[in-house]
């Protein structure tokens, strides 16, 4: 069950046994290997310019017990990942030391759980392009990135269990890209009583919550210390932090505004 597992993995007093946390690989239990969809040359070139390896080399999976939950193991080149990390961290490392999150595009009102037309900024073009390309190759979707949350985790941060249901469009898939330290991502079902699975998310990993899993409970009970290279201030920042880009389409296809 979601709550019990979340508590178990979150515990500071009794550090959890991580041996049941799922590392996504070819032979992992309940993990189905998926073929990325065929790409035009133009799309393949776009992937390259966005810092991704050729789609033929993508390691794409779906979870058998969480239909619609896709996991793309780090598809970024080292330079590509670095550019994305730098682009996000350039929003302000001092800021990131203090903040837990920054919103992009339609800004989510956490208290009222709504988006509004009067509270939005332009969504970063390159990030929207990345999401559009990932969507085309992973599921053949035409996704418009309209709202994003840059989550900043320090080593003791957690994100409680929740569903993301503020978007009027709850059928468009949600994209989640992780950089830096590893995290345990706990995903359950539509109800808190449903079975939950702890998945280890690593640097560069992309998760897509589509179809049945779009509205499922999920959260991050623990950040897991990870061997990390030395480098400039941006790399250094991630030696004890994690950045998660959580991107959603807000509007339905027949909507131009809220
Ligand atoms: C979110 C979220 C997951 C993560 O921002 O809604 O679920 O891996 N983030 O940080
Ligand atoms: Mn979420």
Protein described:
With 258 residues, the chain is α+β, with helices and mostly antiparallel strands. It is built from six helices and twelve strands. It has an eight-stranded antiparallel β-sheet with strand order 1-2-3-10-7-12-5-4, with helices on one face. Strands 6-11-8-9 form a four-stranded antiparallel β-sheet, covered by helices on one side. Strand 2 and strand 3 form a beta hairpin. It is globular and about 50 Å long. Bound molecules: N-oxalylglycine and manganese (II) ion. N-oxalylglycine binds at residues 149, 151, 159, 164, 176, 178, 183, 185, 218, 220, 244, 246.
Principal-axes geometry comes out as: globular
Strand order of the largest sheet: 1-2-3-10-7-12-5-4
Classify the secondary structure makeup into a structural class.
alpha+beta
The largest β sheet comes out as: 8 strands, antiparallel
Q: What's the tally of helices?
A: 6
**Could you name the ranges where pLDDT drops below 50 across 5 or more consecutive residues?**
none
Distance between the termini: 36 Å
* Ligands bound, unique: N-oxalylglycine, manganese (II) ion
SSE string: HEHEEHHEHEEEEEEEHE
Helix content: 10-25%
């Amino acid at each position: 069950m979601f709550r019990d597992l979340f508590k178990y993995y979150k515990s500071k007093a009794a550090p959890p046994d991580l041996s049941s946390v799922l590392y996504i690989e070819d032979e992992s239990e309940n993990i189905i290997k998926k073929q990325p969809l065929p790409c035009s040359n133009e799309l393949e070139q776009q992937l390259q310019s966005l810092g991704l390896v050729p789609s033929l080399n993508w390691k794409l999976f779906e979870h058998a017990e969480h239909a619609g939950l896709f996991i793309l193991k780090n598809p970024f080149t080292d330079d590509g990942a670095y550019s994305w990390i730098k682009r996000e961290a350039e929003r302000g490392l001092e800021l990131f030391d203090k903040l837990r999150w920054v919103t992009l595009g339609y800004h989510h009102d956490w208290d009222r759980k709504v988006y509004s037309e009067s509270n939005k900024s332009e969504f970063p073009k390159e990030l929207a392009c990345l999401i559009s390309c990932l969507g085309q190759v992973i599921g053949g979707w035409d996704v418009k990135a309209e709202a994003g949350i840059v989550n900043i985790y320090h080593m003791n941060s957690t994100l409680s269990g929740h569903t993301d249901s503020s978007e009027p469009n709850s059928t468009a898939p949600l994209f989640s890209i992780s950089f830096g330290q590893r995290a345990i991502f706990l995903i359950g079902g539509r109800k808190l009583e449903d079975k939950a699975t702890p998945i280890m998310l690593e640097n560069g990993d992309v998760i897509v919550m589509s179809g049945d899993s779009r509205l499922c409970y999920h959260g991050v009970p623990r950040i897991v210390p990870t061997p990390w290279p030395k480098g400039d201030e941006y790399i250094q920042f991630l030696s004890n932090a994690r950045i998660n880009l959580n991107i959603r389409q807000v509007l339905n296809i027949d909507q131009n505004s809220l």
